[in-house]
Amino acid sequence: MIAGYMQNGQAEEALKLFCEMLLVGIEPDLYTYVSTLSSCAGLETLDHGEQVHAQIIKTGFGENLAMGNVLITLHAKHQNVVNARKIFDRMPTRDMVSWNAMIAGYTQNGHGDEVLQLIRQMQSAGMKLDFMFNQFTFASILRVCASLIIVKCGKEVHARIIKTGFEKDVFVGSALVDMYSKCGNIEDACRIFNEMPTQNLISWNAMIAGYAQNGYVEEALKSFIHMELQGMKPNQFTFTSVLKACATLTAMEHGRGIHAYIIKNGVQCDVFVGSALIDMYAKCENIEAAARIFESMPERNLVSWNAMIAGYVQNWHDEGALKIFCQMRQACVMADNFNLASILGACAGLAALGHGQQVHALIIKTGFDSDDWVGSALVDMYGKCGDMGSAREVFDETVQRDVVWWTVMIAAYAQHGHGMEALRLFEEMQSTGMKPDHITFVGVLSACSQEGLVNKGREYFHCMSQDYGIIPRVEHYACIVDLLGRAGCLDEAEKFIKEMPLECGSMVWQTLLVACRVHGNMELGKRVAENILEMEPEDPTTYGILSTIYTAAGRWEDVAKLQELMKSRGVEMEPGQSWIEVKSKVHKFVARDRSHPQTEEIYLKLEELTRQMKEAGYVPNTYFLMHEGEEKKNEWHF
Question: Residue 231 CB: number of other CB atoms within 10 A?
Fold first, then answer.
């Protein structure tokens, strides 16, 4: 009866019956103890299993082979792999079940290195692995190869699978598809999948996930459709992979269709499906839909919180990210490195130094200060908040720095006008043998631009491809245009754009347009603006810059025509925002803003500061703002 309960997954009933058996004075035999311990493996805690184990030791069954095997499984399933290994090592004799149980225990608990070490131990002992392993062992080892991304080891295991005749087993085949996919060998994964005599839900899930993970997102969606046509019902793992594919494609219409299908299949309450929906809508720039999914979730895990916070940051809703992070802390959910790096990005976006410092304290408290991802995010946050001292302090405290660390620090210096310091750091980076990437060169070229180092900028631009094999991207060309534009070499900048070997888009032309405004070159500015408006006729930035060029030249009729053109095209200028953080609260403002509760005090302080600035000899430059008769008015607002 106890065995029957155990085999049908009714662990609590099996344990109750065992206790009744002891109460009525019936002495359990070996078979009873094994069945009862197997039932305890299905319970939430290890306590009952340890009590039964104590009873076993008391009765003298502790050294039995079958008992040892089930005890290994019991402890491993409750994540106590250390005790499982102690039991394994104390066993006077071991059979195939013993080794397989230990391998499975290590695999389930993410101890991949120990699995490989155990296999080497078996080989050293002269064991014939082909006879020791079954389909479940092979699947466990393949999962280890997948998690450690060791394709060579995976291929060796694959060869043994073929030799032992398990290649047709659906369980092993699914594990092979998963292993090759996670090791980036999608062709072999696809071949094995197609050669499988039968395919089950696990096989389809492995193949769809493999396509999605390797960027073959359209194939993932096609496989999902093909799977349905074969009458296979998807589960939460299927939906998670398909939604990831939709997120990568930013295919919101497909995503909505999958969302409807999820509701139809009744898995919308699954925490992983909900998290995948949040991620999909956020990456498709529908943050409102993502927020609705998040709020409607009956339960949330760390993945859900991370998806929502990252979604807000990706869509420039940094205040929303901070709000969700505070809710997460109130819910006593422990942060991980991804979570902390994301929220530091929100602090950086808002230049909210106070919030960033609080997150830094949490990072130290939780021990994530040694994490590379979190550390580089800290440098970025301090840099974007203008606290270069703290940024450099975090940078200097780290001994092992990858290219991200160097790049973030160089970019921080370049962003805040410390161009020479950025270039010195780049030279130091090169001296360590660290190879820069394309993002590093954006910071380096920006530093050259700010310092007016035209020749040095050209030199770095050419060394990208010549010394490091990095093909310049649009952002690098924009940096060179900015470099030439700041130096007043406008004609050369225009020629440089026209000779670009790739489609430049509006960003590069807008860089030149800004230079035209600075140097008052109206004719070139007009040509450049026309190019931009052909590509993006509804971009308000271009109209705004061209308007200031006309204004500076006193071309009021052209300003009026431009405003009429904007009106006819439905283009509206969004007011620029500024913000300040006071006592960990962010206050936002726009021009002529009177919505703040302390408006009167703010404007009184502004008048006081304006008076003090004038007394100190400051004269505002209203060159780009002044309309006829408006000099005095614009001077005050400027």
Answer: 6
